[in-house]
DNA sequence: AAGCAATGGATTTTT
DNA sequence: TCCATTGCTT
């Protein structure tokens, strides 16, 4: 159970003086496995970094004995920044990083044992998809039956579950074929010397699993393993941790691994769709026989009206580890709820409210607008733009994902590895060199027949087409020679000129931004070289980290090094910068850290983002918009309980972003996919404590489309409509009549609510031979086109063509 | 080989 | 509605 006593020598430490008892207990835990349940705004990162600092300061571990894992580069950086502000320690020498960053470091150190070229390149999601498309074309795979996107999802999913093609259980022909493609994809990657994100993890895991000395080495080395956002780990990541901690099937009793400190919040698990398993938390407690569990429930972020709302909402989820946020701050402002007639009006209201907040002295960057899906940003952007209010949208392409940058990177990769066919295909005819699809197909067939790369197959190519491609290859080869020995900056500048990329974009009418980005790439490379300290004195770095250790002290004999191909880099804690060329390091950096995705960073601007991307952030004022059935909870997640509970957690995350003021709004109508949708307010409103809320718009008439064109929105606030949706009047907009989803699609203004269609009227009860008794929700069209949306209690909502369905009116 | 119209699909995202 | 992708035209 929780350990609240603190060792004497630690109590005096200034590191601990400002921590609350739970935080202090977590920081000063003994070297045993522990789970920290860290609520939103409870000082989680602080606990993690202070824990590391405390361990180091008290000589309980050396910097080399720490392994600290995060999911994002941002989190890793923050941890390093905070740590170095607490202690004079070289954080870059320590194993603090993302899962993928650390796996990359590990694989570079043991590239021979991992059966990889030392300068292997990393495929990002885009690259992976194009590699799969290329593979499919090559093997004439029907892309109707096997869409590349779906194959990508399949392959990534297998890897996340730790499965190689041989391990995948294929029960049907389709899966068998997918597994074959998976197998071919692996061979292709291996041949080309590239790995995708999943492969970084999987291959690291397998190397640890299958190589006893390497596993033993790392198990002995990492005395303290700290995992951030543990609820987001997938199967493979959990297995990887288990392996490193010596808890897996390969655990050796004589040589116990390090202590695992898992920090997470099951209530903030919102990434199930990408393979995250909250269940890892419970598994961890069971499989590691965790004796220490500490809950951090004291919240330092929000006023209690906000926290009460969050607590009340999340209490509707089952299967929680259980946690309640509390604060010493007062109730603060009530949570304001606004109902608007349209998404447009919702945005208008928001802009007005924001202006007021800004007048009251709140910075624009302290105001965030959160939405469930990206498509919702459009209306809001328009409203902000028209009001001339600066704003910033998160999401979209990041720097290293832009087309022109990807092109430049492809050239750079070809300099390093001519066998990188993905890069070859990307730029062989860009800028255009008169190389057509026909001749490239020829080249690909030739390469396939000889089992070599496209680059190597060129020499065997004949004819005029062959000459053009040979010209390209020669260009790359010449460039490689000319840039050898140059520094990174000069390599990139030279490449940008000689490839013709710059010339191409300079000639393009709208190419100015792209030219700018390419020039930015040179600066990015320069600052990368500065930061990573290439050319820095390696010995000096080792000393400053206080980490100078002989191979033997790290558990490896010189013999092991000979025998198992463990590179010296690993023994100086695997800093890849020591042995890799700056170019390879930069390319790796580009793949693992795609860069910023915010436009106009730094300006005082309203922050727009999805709820997902708001995780981990906080703002003085937060607007949660589109809180409607079908949108939030999203219709695709509402069918099963797990999906709905994840939506609820998502809402929990959204609510807990706010420090002072929280607004939640929903709209009766919304433009989505070119159609006006009529949405009901979200069920989540019913799960919030009424006493913490303030309804700004308790009264609105039923939407005009339901009542007839004449009645507008404006008069709404004055009419005597109370308590949720209209149960007065005959327009019949009753929430109870609608099934989950509550959305009525309106097509070309043919919806009828006030007249009969083929003898039916809305709200009428009908009988269907198969579905039983149901209620008509919507009628649209006329004659043979007439359709009715009917809610059958047993079978859900159906759209039935009235010319086909046999319906009997029920009195 | 480039440019344009038709087509289809449209939660959420990091590495 | 609006975006990316694709097939077809010039």
Automatic annotation (TrEMBL):
Naming one, the record's GO cellular component terms include: cytosol
UniProtKB keywords: ATP-binding, DNA-binding, Helicase, Hydrolase, Isomerase, Nucleotide-binding
Q: This protein's superkingdom? A: Bacteria
**Residue span, UvrD-like helicase C-terminal domain:** 304-616
Q: Name one Pfam family in it.
A: PcrA_UvrD_tudor
In this chain, ATP is annotated as bound at 38-45
Catalytically driven reaction(s): ATP + H2O = ADP + phosphate + H(+); Couples ATP hydrolysis with the unwinding of duplex DNA by translocating in the 3'-5' direction
**Residue ranges of the UvrD-like helicase ATP-binding domain?**
17-303
Query: Which Gene Ontology BP terms does the record give?
Result: recombinational repair; response to radiation
Give a yes or no for keyword Disulfide bond in this entry: no
Known EC number(s)? 5.6.2.4
UniProt xrefs under InterPro entries = DExx_box_DNA_helicase_dom_sf, DNA_helicase_UvrD-like_C, DNA_helicase_UvrD/REP, P-loop_NTPase, UvrD-like_ATP-bd
Any one GO molecular function term = ATP hydrolysis activity
Task: State the similarity comment.
Answer: Belongs to the helicase family. UvrD subfamily.
Task: Tell me the protein's name.
Answer: DNA 3'-5' helicase
